[in-house]
Input
Amino acid sequence: MEFKEGKHSILMVSDFFYPNFGGVENHIYLLSQCLLKLGHKVVVMTHAYANRSGVRYMTNGLKVYYAPWKPFLMQNTLPTFYGTLPIIRTILIREKISLVHGHQAFSTLCHEALMHARTMGYKVIFTDHSLYGFSDIGSIHMNKVLQFTLADVSQAICVSHTSKENTVLRSGLPPEKVFVIPNAVDTTMFKPAPERLSMDPIVIVVISRLVYRKGADLLVEVIPEVCHLYPNVRFIIGGDGPKRVRLEEMREKHSLQDRVDMLGAVPHAKVRSVLNSGHIFLNSSLTEAFCIAILEAASCGLLTVSTRVGGVPEVLPDDMIVLAKPDPSDMVHAIKKAIRILPHIDPQEMHRRMKEMYSWHDVAKRTEIVYDRALRCSNQSLLERLPRYLTCGAWAGKLFCLVMIIDFILWRLLQLWQPDSEVEPVPDFKRTELKTEVRK
Amino acid sequence: MSIISNSRFIYVHDNNKHAVDTHHIIAQRSAVKPIVTYLLAILIVAHALFLHLEKGKPVTTVIWSFFFGAVLVKLLIWRPIVKESVIIMPEFGVQLETHYGSGKINRRFIPVSKILKPVLNECVTPVTCCWCLSFLIRDGNELTLVFKKFRPPLKMLVPIWKALCVATDCKESFEFQEDG
Output
């Protein structure tokens, strides 16, 4: 495949990719597919999952390297600082990569890859998908690592303006370097039911992991209150997690077995059918950088009731969402308002508007602009880059400089051991599309 | 006869004998590396002897230094395998040979009826990526590697793979097809 002018070779790096399912995984996959359609070359690097190790090809020739580094904590590769330098260098040279795009602050592989890519002179981009705190010990350390990685990043992307503010404050990155590109939803997959559901009973759908962060405790307070006020309302709860037990107890205590359905974990392919069985989507997250779940619900024509946290207010227009404080009484009030305005909602119209507002092709085109901007940044030598690390802190700055100097030395030693010319580039395979036969 | 070489391997294709097609991969021998390694080992032993005789360190220091020097020589110079060969006998089968430094030769013969397809696979290790030439064996669960230890570069593997495809009557495909 001959590369046209203006087309890039991108390496996406993250600990989070298929076969794991989630927001970050979906984002990387769909963005990569749209970039491939735009004519760029995309390669993904992640760690090995169970027995899935080595090179795999996905739809449209998306090449994925499952590097045999086993995860050690919450899907993250063991951080060895310099251990991944040889494999990352090999992949960058053999795939003729022009820029490296890392995803998610909580991914150790991402941080290491960005560090090594910068040492070797590649341009790097970082996308932050979540909001993090400032005060607890875990967040303090995470933010320091992020400061280190982002001290020398070419450009950064955040999924909402709130997320941009959070990332800039945590990392000290200049705001001019941060672009805001919201996530999108696959509107061809999330469509409303062809026939509108009857208004009796009114069904409220909740699909989320049942954990503290996603506000499962709020649901325990809100559901009995709403069931008491509205005898014709039913709840469907999809998802699993540590808080499931509390919800089951709530169901038993208030005898709501016939009014609250607990579906357990819902595979991503079945989410649409669960959404299509409801009128209102309830999101009770305590923190959310963007919230793709409410996009999926709106695309299926459901009216959303959500907590006003993080980037949620930026996602949907005011007539598609009712916001509330993360407080049970305020949420009950919001659900009351939603039930009142429900008859005026047209699911097909909502879906049509979502199709116009959000698409992954749009995200890919905007990301392309960020890539072009990153590649126009000047090439800088190690000595020119080191002062950026010194600004990270009195002691941390000097430590980070030392880490980068050692990385540089190790890279040069590696080049002596195995020169760049010895790493064979991978031949680019031609894709031929079979024409489907028209059967008569 | 055609030859391709790089810093680690030499590929020799010998098709002078009409019926049989032979491909050899030979490990390169450097002139400088053994001299430097032996010098380093001698230096380590000499330093240990000096410590023992002049500074009064125990004799175990000298013994450890011998051991360490031997390990260094083995790691950097000693090549257990000097050559791996693929001998293709059309209509009959493929013989895979491994020639050891000690003079021993290990031979494996695979009849052509058992070979489903020769494949070039990309392998990923924790530190690098390489290409492996292997056979898909009929009724077999695993791939059979053509080269036991050597990992020659793709430019040396491709002519061998093409010759194997012709001998085993498989169509080469280096395009991948997708349902439209």
